[in-house]
Every structure is written in structure tokens, then in C-alpha cells.
Amino acid sequence: MYYSDWGQDQPNGGTEDCIVLDHKDGYRWHDYHCETQMFPLCESKYGVFV
Q1: Among 4, 6, 17, 21, which has the minimal tally of Cβ within 10 Å of its Cβ?
Q2: What is d(CA 33, CA 15) in angstroms, rounded to the nearest whole number?
Q3: CA distance linking residue 2 with residue 28, whole number of Å
């Protein structure tokens, strides 16, 4: 299974190695600088199920 929900023109490379959900782009994925502290959307010790 493959799933992707990148925003327009994302990922755009460079030194942005982390990901955020951008509310300005319908909560699609955008690559982002890892130095910026973000908070998890959800956490589970059992893994992720899609």
C-alpha cells in the first residue's frame, strides 16, 4: 500500500527534513525545518493502522 498527501509543490527539497500538516493547504503534508518544535497529532505505542 502506498499513500501520499503532499501539498502543491511539496516536498520542495532543500534542508527541510520534517513534515507538518499545513492548514492553509487543506492539511496536506509540507516539508519543514526540523529545528522548529512541533507537537504530535497522535501517538500510539502499538503503531499506526490505515
Answers
A1: 4
A2: 7
A3: 16
